# Entry
Amino acid sequence: MNKRLLIAAAVACVAWGTAFAEGDLRQTTLIDKPNPSAAEIDAALFPKQVADLKAECAQMEKAGMRCQSVIPKSSLDTIQVTFARGSAVLTEEGKGFLRSVGESLQRKSGVWKSLAIEGHADATGSEAVNRRLSQSRADAAKSFLVAEFGFSNIETVGRSSEKLRDADNPASGLNRRVEFIPDW
# Structure
C-alpha cells in the first residue's frame, strides 16, 4: 500500500477522533419526518463517514499500523417516537417509524452486532419517576421491534431527563422520546 496513503489515513483518523473526543463520542442524526424510508434510516444508523473511518482504520491495522482514532458511535434521534406525559405507550405514528427502523436493521443484519435503545423523559417528574418512565419507553420500543422483527440483540437504558432534546422547554413533548445506537 502507498506510504503516503497510510500517512494521510492516520492524520484523518486522528483529526476525526479529535472532533468527537470533546463530545459524547456520538454522531447523532435527527430524522423528524413521519415515515422515513429504510434507506434514510440506514444512512442515520450507519453513516458513510463512520463507515469510511472504520474502513481506514481496518486498512491501517491490516498493514501493521495502529489506528489511533476514536471512532464515534452513530445514533438516530427522532421526535416521531414520542410519548404522552407519564406514558410509555407507543403511538401509531411511533409504530410506523419503528417499522422503518426494523426494516433498516433487517437490511443491515450482517453489519450490526447489537442495538441500544435509550429512553428519555421530560424534566417535569422526579428523577426516580423519570428514570423508570424512560426505561419503560425504551422497553416499549424494544418489545415492538422484537415482536415485529424477531430481533434478540437489543438492550435498553432509561436516561431520565439527562439529555433534553428541547433544553429551552424542559417540559416539552420533544424530550419524551427514544434514541437508537447501533454497535457495528
Remarks:
- DSSP finds five helices and five strands in the chain.
